[in-house]
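Hi R.,

Here's the chain you asked about this morning:
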Amino acid sequence: HTMVFYSNYDGSGESYFEDFVTKARWGQTGVWSNGKGFPETENLLFKGAKDATRFKRWIRHHQQVSRFWFARFKDLSTRDIRRNAVICEGLAKARTDSEYRALIELMTSRVRTDDTLETREIQSLLLRGMGNLKAAHVVAVNFPTEGSTGNAALANWLADLSGASSSPTHARATFDGRINKEETQAINIAISPSGLRRLRLHELHHEHKGLTSDSFASLPGAFRSGMTSAGRKQILGDTNHNDWSWGSDGEPDAVLIIYAEDTAKLNPIVADEIAALQAAGFSIVTEVETKPIKEKPMREPFGFVDGVSQPVIRGQAGSIAAHNRMHVVEPGEFVLGYRDNTEYFPTSPMVNAHAPGATQLPSIPDQTASDYPAFGTDPHTAPRDLGKNGSFLVIRQLEQDTAGFDAHLKMQAETARAEYDLDYIDEDWLAAKIMGRWKNGASIVRSPRKDIPSPSMSMSVDDNDFQFGTEDPQGLKCPFGAHVRRANPRDSQDPVSPNRQIALSNRHRLLRRARAYEDKQTGKEGLLFMCLNANLERQFEFVQQTWLNGTRFHGLQDEYDSISGNAVQTTNRLSIPTAAGPIQVKGLQSFVTVKGGGYFFMPSRSALRFFSEFVASQAG
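And the predicted structure, written out as tokens:
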């Protein structure tokens, strides 16, 4: 019995056969496994064509030479021909925003992948830390009251921010993240649960996979509840804080985060924007002016370098550097609409396809990106993805008692030095044990003694590629309860399987964007903590509740994080392992108070335009 396989291809035969091996070896094995001389197979589909050398030799041995050539389009490859055919189909059948974008990518020959970020849609704060813009100011606002006038003002503001307005009266938000040296400012916008309710998102209903829901309900439960709800306060350990300064009714409707080169350039921008907001009926809830960054790296009020260890989004700058390897995560860990570390798309808010402005929003991502997308298969009535290219922003205004911290640290160091008769215990040593890094940012895993020279003491780039479990399994260098070991344990909790544990830890990473601040009226200072994540519960709340506030973290007993843990207990302690036995620092007090903040949704450019059109439709 004989089987004949006919095939037309362009390019080299070697390239063609390699595609069989890498992309279709199971099918090739299943079809040809009974052929005489075919490489050994297993269970009909396995091995066989995977043995590339023998498989290709077998093909060559049975190949029949073709005596003619045929090329209808001699200057085009089969890939070009197929792409052109798909473009023609797209021109005839594309009906949704996602299909139009896929069509444009085909026309520009751009390679389509799931993890290629649409940077022109993403607010700049998600893509970079704004380190070159040294001054920043946060303005928290409430929207104008409902009514035709208030809705019109709100719609115009959203249109200005998105860049949709031809004659803006407000500043535009900054997208793309690539700020040139000539650009001296950046503005980002995020909206709270109350703000989205004010936009009447709850009045939009849609059906998805047999379930009917309103658009507000499609947002995560933790976000809908808000940071100031009783349940979230319990999770975050905020139950003892009664001096909230971000409004009496919970979170403001939105926050504007304004950056500039320096204070001289920042102040007039802020003044103009506040004046325009107030004239349009917005009310200012609070403002936080951050300290200008005088030198890099930035230090928080207690004196520690801040922002040393950050996750790196795959495909972005630095993601291929060797020292960042353990910190690389998939885009979907922070940006909605892309696959996360589990290879699934994070849940995202949806809106009805027939809502005013919804045509600008992409479809719900439920299939792998393809070089040859199928057009006309996406129902134009299917709900649209409001979240794609957006993220969830957490803000916490953390007031720090620097003088109290320094005095308490000195007293605790003197007590421990006398109790354990160890001359090397001083304030700097104890501060490093509490934080997990020296104040200059060097890790105590790589530089356990400040008087011993180490490359990491000068902040070399490889000072962030250490592993707690592999290099310090007993906590003799960095205590298990140190802040940085709690906030990102890396492989600490399973040093036997470090790669698996790092993968687990990376499911809880936060993209931090903090700035130090000082209240000029009261002189009080602190850290304006900001972080971005795609899943509030799995990322920010998990880190805060389980790792920082967890009194049994890593087998410890009745200890929580001394830097940013809760203050439910009036005093804390820190166990510092040593070769001679643990040093117990008892009676540690908290010198950080949560003064305000909230959960916010940071929308994409298209989402802002949708909000603008949707609110404008309510203005009558």
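The radius of gyration is 29 Å.

Let me know if you need anything else.
M.
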